[in-house]
Amino acid sequence: MEIHLKSRTVKYVSVTVAFLLVTTFLLYLFNMDKAIESLSEINYFDLLLGQIANTLIVLSLTSVLSSNFGQAYWVDIKETKLIKPFWTCFTGITVYLLTALFYSILMYAMGRYAGVLLSAVFSTFLLMILSFQMISIYFGKEGIKQQLREEYEQLLRLTNYPYVSDYLYKIKKLEKELRECASPEKEELGRALQTEIRELEQKLNSGDEKLVDEAHKEYIERSVDAHENLKSIDIKLEEYTKNAIKNNDSDVIIENIELLVSAENDITLFRLMEDLFSWDERYCCKVLRQVNERGTNFIINREMHFFKQFALQKLIEGSGKLSAIQFLLSIYDQSNLGMKNIREDLKRIDSERRKLRDKELELNKVMLSHEDIGEGYRQVKQENKQLEEEKKALEKEILALLSSCTTKDLRSYYLPLEECYRAYEEGKYEIANKYITVILECFRLDLDSIRFDTGIMDIHSDKAIIFSYFTKEELWIVERLIEKDKLKSVLSEKDKKALLSMKEIKL
Question: pTM (2 decimals)?
Answer without folding.
Answer: 0.63
